[in-house]
Amino acid sequence: MADLFDSAPEPPRREDIAPGAALLRGFARGEDRALIEAIDAVVARAPFRHMVTPGGHAMSVAMTSCGSAGWVTDRRGYRYASDDPDSAQPWPQMPPVLRDLAQRAAAEAGFAGFDPDACLINRYVPGAKMALHQDKDERDFSAPIVSVSLGLPATFQFGGLARSDKPRRYELRHGDVFVWGGPTRLVYHGVLTLKDGEHPLLGRQRINLTFRKAL
Description:
seven-stranded antiparallel β-sheet
């Protein structure tokens, strides 16, 4: 049987979710192997780790970063830092293939000129999740968030500007890119508990890239 993953990918399609928010189905699927290779190079220098929230809870999602800044959390709070706290060295540079994808996806969603300086790399294994939250540690909210899904499918929650707003749910599959900004830049969002499964390239995990203009 032919490898389903090596078959010709379906053409990407855009779903407009809300003002400033678009889901680009399959946008990254044709270059997934190059993306994974670039991610592996970053992780070799800045390994995944389970960070601790200010409240003392270890996150179920393992994280690392690349670019001019990386997102960190510890007992002192949430923030961006130019150095990896585990190595005291600068975060790895953002690979061009990652930056290019983020810029093209942002432009497709209506945010031409996006120039991310931070890429958070999140690794979900079955049982991991991300509670509803806002991305508000960045200095400039005029730039969008670009989120790339690789590996196992996940259920993404996209809510409103108040935590109490009921979120809508979207299944994000390998190669999907979700972009939000403008009036939806500060919406609450999260990921429900990842279900078990096996992906042809990434096995029992989901890798999520989120690009931001942090500094």
